[in-house]
Write a structure and sequence with these properties.
- Strands 1, 2, 3, 4, 5, 6, 7, 8, 9 and 10 form a 10-stranded mixed beta sheet that branches.
- The chain has 15 helices and 10 strands.
- By secondary structure, the protein is of the alpha+beta class.
- A hairpin with a 2-residue loop joins strand 5 and strand 6.
- Helices cover 44% and strands 21% of the residues.
- The longest helix is centred in the last third of the chain and has 27 residues.
- The protein has 3 domains: 58 residues, no CATH class; 220 residues, 3-hydroxy-3-methylglutaryl-coenzyme A Reductase, Chain A, domain 2, CATH 3.90.770.10; 88 residues, Hydroxymethylglutaryl-CoA reductase, class I/II, NAD/NADP-binding domain (Alpha-Beta Plaits), CATH 3.30.70.420.
- Bound molecules: 3-hydroxy-3-methylglutaryl-coenzyme A and NADPH dihydro-nicotinamide-adenine-dinucleotide phosphate.
């Protein structure tokens, strides 16, 4: 240890390259000790974890010093009637927001008492959109024409990079001399961003060679990955999922202590009109809360919460109550790859019967998407109910505020 600490101090050893000279567990320990000394802090808890470091440092993290822990709670049982998820589930939620799990749990009670959430995936496709520079608008148009005329070649090159991924289609967009090629893939059980980027790079190289356009970037932001964007809301990205439930007046009163009419009015004035007035892309109350908590528990990429949050919550009046639905245009989930192989995340996926590759391929990722959509519906119901009953502040005072330590 001392020898490596000395080398780090005199800069003859790079901090991030410790794994090249030490086994992973020791490299992480030396790095943590160095950071503790440099910053005068103690990282006792950051240094306590059970995950397999060998795997994490190869696939998931660079310059690792340890792990932070986020409490995981469950909400459920949640009855789901999807095409891939059909049964009762306990939804794992990793969060530090007191009252969130209680709220989703309450929504799950209502959904299950109502007979379950109906869920359907409307479309499924992960996108990557390289940007090319051309010499003129005429050249730009010729690149678009080449792409349209060469779909088979584009498909063959894209699919040569992956045994699971399939090219669904392409869309071109031109702005002056810039040409954007939005490639859409069926990535089966993988969320698919690495897969789509590798395939997209191969396609871009061919397009540049064949058309004389210059590849500027394999991501031209028309994808659009990890940024709020209307294109994802309109066309969908990842999985587009809808979930709905018929809530009777009685359930609104017994579970949410309010009425169907009040839930409906809160939704209209808050989620629809309020969001429109704010210029929002998301017309919901707290979709991001449920998506973030399930994503963190289940090893998904948390940056994709920004896309998942563009959910629309609707309330239709029906006989003896309301039909409440959530529409999530861009939900990016996978059950292989990324963070899904880490032990705690894998256990949370196993809770849902959705860890690893499904049979057929793609069925596990779709199952996960359906369950998360039903969870989002549960969160929407409970928060709309709490706002309608005027209980939000009280709930967070009671559940979300322990004694605040003074430092
Ligand atoms: C807190 C509750 C649920 C109380 O709700 P309640 O109806 O007063 O409590 P209850 O004791 O009658 O229990 C009803 C059900 O809630 C669940 N429940 C109740 N307590 C627990 C608990 N400790 N742990 C787990 N589950 C719990 C449980 O399902 C229970 O049914 P039971 O099983 O007893 O038949 C309710 O007031 C509520 O949901 N409030 C809303 C809180 C909320 O949704 N917070 C989310 C975060 S808010 C935010 O981050 C976004 C925001 C608000 O800024 C977005 C925006 O702008 O709108
Ligand atoms: N590169 C980028 O631009 C970005 C990367 N990311 C990161 O990408 C990672 C996720 O990428 P992703 O491509 O999902 O994962 P991985 O890069 O981990 O690749 C998953 C691979 O698993 C293989 N596989 C095995 N079984 C299956 C199955 N049943 N269904 C589908 N694939 C299977 C596939 O191999 P094969 O292809 O050979 O069939 C697939 O490519 C995350 O860590 C995320 O944070 C996020 C955003 C952008």
């Amino acid at each position: 240890m001392d020898e490596y600490l000395a080398a780090l101090r005199n800069r003859t050893q790079k901090l991030y390259a410790l794994e090249k000279v030490l086994p992973p567990a020791e490299a992480v320990k030396v790095r943590r000790t160095f950071i503790e000394e440099e910053t005068g802090t103690t990282l006792e808890h950051v240094g306590a974890y059970t995950m397999a470091i060998d795997q994490a440092v190869k696939k998931n993290i660079e310059n690792m010093i340890g792990a932070v822990q986020i409490p995981v709670g469950v909400a459920g049982p949640l009855r789901v009637h999807g095409e891939y998820a059909d049964g009762e589930y306990y939804l794992p939620l990793a969060t530090t927001e007191g009252a969130l799990v209680a709220s989703v749990n309450r929504g799950c009670s209502a959904i299950t008492a109502a007979g379950g959430a109906e869920v359907r995936i409307i479309r499924d496709g992960m996108t990557r959109a390289p940007v090319f520079a051309t010499d003129s608008v005429i050249h730009a148009r010729s690149v678009v024409d080449w792409v349209e005329a060469n779909q088979d070649r584009i498909r063959a090159v894209a699919e040569s990079t992956t045994s699971h991924g399939r090219l669904i289609g392409t869309m071109t967009s031109v702005a002056g001399t810039s040409v954007y090629l939005r490639l859409e893939f069926d990535t089966k059980d993988a969320m698919g961003m690495n897969m789509a980027t590798i395939a997209g790079t191969a396609v871009s190289t061919m397009v540049a060679e064949e058309t004389g356009a210059r590849l500027i970037s394999v991501s031209g932001n028309l994808c659009t990955d990890k940024k709020p964007a209307a294109i994802n809301v309109v066309l969908g990205r990842g999985k587009t999922v809808v979930a709905g439930v018929h809530l009777t007046e009685d359930l609104c009163r017994t579970i949410f202590k309010t009425s169907a009419a009040i839930i409906s009015e809160v939704n209209m004035r808050k989620n629809l009109v309020g969001s429109a007035r704010a210029g929002a892309l998301g017309f919901n109350a707290q979709a991001a809360n449920v998506i973030a908590a399930t994503f963190i528990a289940c090893g998904q990429d948390p940056a994709h919460v920004v896309e998942g949050s563009s959910c629309i919550t609707t309330v239709d009046p029906v006989e003896d109550g309301i039909y409440v639905a959530v529409t999530i245009p861009a939900l990016q989930v996978g059950t292989v790859g990324g963070g899904t192989g880490l032990a705690t995340q894998r256990e949370c996926l196993a809770l849902l019967g959705a860890n690893g590759g499904g049979e057929p391929a793609g069925s596990h990722a779709k199952k996960l998407a359906e369950i998360i959509a039903a969870g989002v519906l549960a969160g929407e119901l409970s928060l709309l109910g709490a706002l309608g009953a005027g209980h939000l502040a009280k709930a967070h005072q009671q559940l979300g505020r322990g004694e605040v330590p003074r430092t």
